[in-house]
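We were asked to recover a plausible sequence for a given structure. The inputs and outputs are reproduced exactly as logged, with field labels preserved.

PROBLEM: sequence recovery
POSITIONS: 900
GIVEN STRUCTURE:
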């Protein structure tokens, strides 16, 4: 027993010794890191470890000592102190370490993503050349030219502009295939599939998006403005097939198994030349009254349908199975008229994706062009939901599948351009994406098509770390005319350890072409030392919209432990361009500063932009991080949330407002009005896709018909369909009078040049809206809009009353309208002071500085416009103002020269 006890004591002593030695090594390593003369004390190291032992930084180090200072100066802990200090270190450990398990990003492993679009080195010249090309092209050949315009304008990232290109391409489409793909693409851009209760064959009443109209061949120049006939149920198969002129009265009997079908010989013969030769030629059947058709592949019901068609030219009494038999019979005996009729009628009968998936192979085998198009249409209009369906993949992805589609005229660059864009958006590095881009490359005929397909394929292969193949694709894209693909070649060389060659490639572009921001941004990846930061700064000067330079400078500041400065740097771009990557980086910085309330704000805003966002390079769900951080901040009640929302709304803090609404939606996820407020904020931040998603969610969560109609109206209005939006608003008002319905109607009507009569009607609508129940946030906006209409009608006193009423309910933007009223009353000082109030209150001040410049002298105006440009380089008025001033100055100098 004593032996066992002694053994346990020895084991415990050994364990204490081991822990003692481990702690000594741990302290030594920490002190070594602390004294290391590298570039500042790394924040990520601070978050990973906690310094628990003091040392004398002035002590001299000995060359024979492995520690960075004399061992005699160290105070070694005792065993008792080990236990106490271990517990203290756990308690004192920074909570930032918990929330930054993967550290912060590093400048040496940080690079901007490649753009997947055509990017010209002279955008204006390329756009002008494309415009000339459109003008010189016949109307019925313009569809692909507008598609090329779409590919070029993708670099701007403006959804409305891109949608207009697709609408123009659809308007000028002639063949059924192009119409089917483009109408499906337009539906995909609106994400109609996300609307609860919607069908793939629904349309908004316009020809350009109507699935029925897409199946009609021909060019209609007014299709973009015309309404479709869906309510009248377009029939693709009519009674326009004339009866045969053959009057042969002879009867022939077709025997199929034990059944007999009597037909008129002449009418059967009139179906095709082969049947005519069989019944009236030199074949033995020409002398027979009974012909055995048992092994022809048609049933007795099918043969009766053939006979019925020859007599009436109608198929509407046939079942789908019989129609398929007729289609096969028509192919076997070359009955083109009957085949066309079956093809049209079967295409018109398709109603859902399941039917399409069943019939597509049969339609391809029988080469039923319209039926294949109808099947494809249902597949395409269900994207992205059915993208990974095995049947859909078998239809599109392989080279053999493309060839099968080509045999019926249903394989094109247009088709695979659409499919590849859907796949890239869903999962850029998937095998499906690669296969679709391979098919896109095979379908490319024109130079721009080859350049686009090869460049996008190169980008995907680069992401998949297939550097050799990616480089080959980029080089081929350069040969096809896409200079920007040189960036791709440089990236592949960098990944293969050829940094100097990558630098030379980008440097040659800067020398050869007019320097642009993205060129210097790219060269900074291959530069060192001061040259790197110079390139990054030059990129911002030439193109302030590039996010990478701001992020790089911020990360460099973080590495120097200047976290507050890093936040300020990120704020420079977030204030005028909201992007998920910048919001994420700022949230990381706030976590490092242990400012968890601000971090939560940013992550909630981030989740509004991308609901499934993964932080820390895709390792942690953003919503999970919010849950963890929320344990360290004071929770808000619903009343607190509404107060915070009003405060942030009045301070023109759109990101803060988004965060509060996100919190409110967690407590009440089915509140459609909150989703609608969310969409308004996202539109202010120019996040149009996210705004549309919020609108769709608002519509889906609506519990009443009248409310659902309003949100559908806003979706239509935001996608350029003003008349349809007005119709939705009127239908909603007919069910129940509501603030939002009146406001939508007024807003849509005001979006034109208003005459006095129209303005009066809009005023009445806004006044009716204000009589309906709503909250102060929306009523403030209605009052502001009403004041604007009064100003346009020169009713300045009424306008001022509206603006004052709006300000009383904290609609801060009304300061701008009130300033305009003062200005029109020739009181510029009061106008200036009113805009100063807005600047003092608003968090986003660029527009306020710009507007205030109109109410002061030239020098003060220049100062305000300079501040506006600094806060938001995307605002164009300051540049135009300064350019006009310089032009006036130059002309003044020219006049002076005339006197000499």
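RECOVERED SEQUENCE:
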């Amino acid at each position: 027993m004593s032996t066992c006890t002694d053994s346990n004591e020895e084991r415990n002593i050994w364990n204490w010794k081991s822990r003692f030695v481990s702690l000594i090594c741990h302290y030594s390593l920490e002190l070594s890191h602390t004294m290391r003369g590298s570039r500042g004390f790394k924040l990520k190291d601070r978050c990973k470890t906690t310094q628990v032992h003091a040392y004398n930084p002035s002590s001299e180090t000995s060359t024979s000592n492995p520690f960075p200072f004399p061992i005699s100066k160290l105070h070694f802990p005792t065993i008792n102190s080990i236990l106490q200090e271990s517990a203290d270190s756990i308690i004192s450990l920074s909570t930032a370490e918990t929330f930054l398990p993967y550290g912060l990003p590093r400048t040496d492993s940080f690079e901007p993503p490649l753009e997947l679009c055509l990017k010209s080195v002279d955008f204006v010249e390329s756009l002008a050349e494309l415009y000339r090309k459109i003008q010189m092209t016949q109307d019925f050949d313009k569809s692909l030219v507008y598609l090329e315009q779409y590919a070029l304008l993708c670099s701007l990232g403006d959804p409305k502009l891109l949608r207009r290109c697709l609408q123009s391409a659809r308007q000028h489409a002639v063949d059924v295939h192009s119409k089917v793909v483009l109408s499906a693409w337009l539906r995909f851009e609106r994400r109609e599939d996300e609307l609860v209760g919607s069908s793939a064959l629904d349309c908004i009443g316009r020809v350009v998006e109507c699935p029925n109209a897409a199946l009609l061949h021909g060019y209609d120049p007014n299709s973009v403005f015309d309404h479709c006939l869906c309510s009248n149920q377009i029939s693709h198969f009519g009674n326009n097939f004339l009866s045969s002129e053959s009057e042969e009265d002879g009867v022939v009997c077709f025997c199929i198994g034990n059944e007999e079908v009597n037909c008129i010989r002449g009418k059967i013969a009139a179906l095709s030349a082969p049947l005519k030769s069989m019944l009236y030629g030199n074949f033995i059947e020409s002398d027979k009254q009974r012909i055995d058709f048992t092994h022809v592949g048609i049933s007795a019901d099918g043969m009766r349908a053939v006979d019925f068609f020859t007599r009436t030219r109608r198929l509407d009494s046939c079942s789908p199975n019989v129609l398929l038999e007729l289609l096969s019979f028509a192919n076997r005996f070359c009955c083109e008229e009957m085949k066309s009729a079956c093809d049209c009628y079967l295409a018109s009968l398709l109603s859902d994706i399941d039917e399409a998936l069943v019939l597509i192979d049969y339609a391809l085998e029988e080469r039923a062009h319209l039926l294949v198009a109808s099947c494809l249409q249902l597949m395409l209009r269900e994207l992205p939901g059915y993208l990974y369906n095995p049947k859909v993949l078998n239809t599109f992805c392989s080279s053999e599948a493309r060839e099968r589609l080509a045999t019926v005229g249903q394989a094109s660059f247009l088709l695979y351009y659409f499919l590849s864009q859907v796949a890239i958006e869903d999962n850029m590095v998937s095998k499906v994406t690669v296969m679709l881009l391979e098919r896109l490359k095979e379908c490319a005929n024109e130079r721009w098509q080859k350049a686009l397909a090869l460049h996008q394929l190169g980008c995907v292969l680069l992401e998949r770390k297939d550097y050799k193949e990616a480089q080959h694709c980029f080089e081929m894209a350069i040969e096809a005319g896409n200079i920007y693909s040189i960036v791709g070649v440089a990236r592949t060389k960098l990944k293969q350890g050829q940094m100097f060659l990558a630098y030379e490639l980008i440097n040659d572009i800067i020398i050869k072409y007019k320097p642009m921001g993205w060129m210097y941004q790219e060269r900074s990846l291959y530069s060192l030392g001061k040259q790197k930061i110079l390139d990054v700064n030059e990129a911002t000067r030439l193109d302030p919209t590039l996010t990478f330079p701001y992020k790089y400078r911020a990360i460099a500041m973080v590495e120097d432990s200047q976290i507050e400065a890093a936040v300020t740097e990120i704020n420079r771009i977030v204030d005028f361009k909201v992007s998920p990557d910048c919001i994420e980086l700022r949230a990381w910085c706030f976590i490092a500063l242990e400012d968890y309330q601000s971090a939560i704000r940013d992550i909630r805003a981030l989740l509004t932009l991308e609901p499934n966002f993964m932080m820390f390079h895709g390792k942690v769900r953003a919503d999970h991080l919010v849950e963890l951080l929320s344990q360290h901040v004071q929770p808000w009640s619903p009343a607190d949330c509404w107060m915070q929302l009003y405060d942030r709304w009045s301070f023109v803090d759109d990101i803060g407002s988004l965060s509060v609404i996100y919190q409110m939606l967690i407590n009440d996820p089915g509140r459609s009005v909150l989703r609608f407020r969310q969409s308004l904020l996202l539109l202010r931040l120019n996040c149009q896709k996210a705004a549309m998603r919020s609108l769709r969610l608002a519509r889906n969560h609506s519990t009443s018909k009248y409310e659902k109609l309003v949100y559908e109206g806003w979706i239509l209005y935001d996608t350029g369909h003003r008349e349809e939006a007005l119709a939705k608003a009127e239908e909603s008002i007919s069910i129940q009078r509501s603030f939002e319905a009146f406001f939508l109607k007024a807003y849509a009507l005001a979006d034109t040049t208003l005459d006095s009569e129209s303005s009066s009607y809009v005023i009445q609508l806004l006044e009716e809206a204000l009589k309906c129940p709503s909250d102060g946030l929306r009523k403030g906006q209605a009052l502001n809009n009403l004041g604007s209409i009064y100003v346009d009608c020169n009713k300045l006193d009424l306008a001022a009353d509206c603006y004052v009423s709006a300000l009383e309910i904290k609609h801060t933007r009304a300061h701008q309208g009130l300033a305009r009223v003062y200005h029109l009353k020739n009181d510029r000082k009061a106008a200036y002071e009113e805009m100063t109030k807005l600047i003092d209150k608003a968090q986003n001040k660029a527009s306020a500085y710009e507007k205030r410049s109109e109410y002061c002298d030239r020098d003060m105006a220049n100062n305000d416009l300079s501040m506006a440009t600094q806060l938001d380089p995307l605002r164009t008025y300051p540049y135009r103002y300064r350019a006009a001033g310089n032009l006036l100055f130059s002309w003044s100098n020219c006049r002076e020269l005339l006197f000499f």
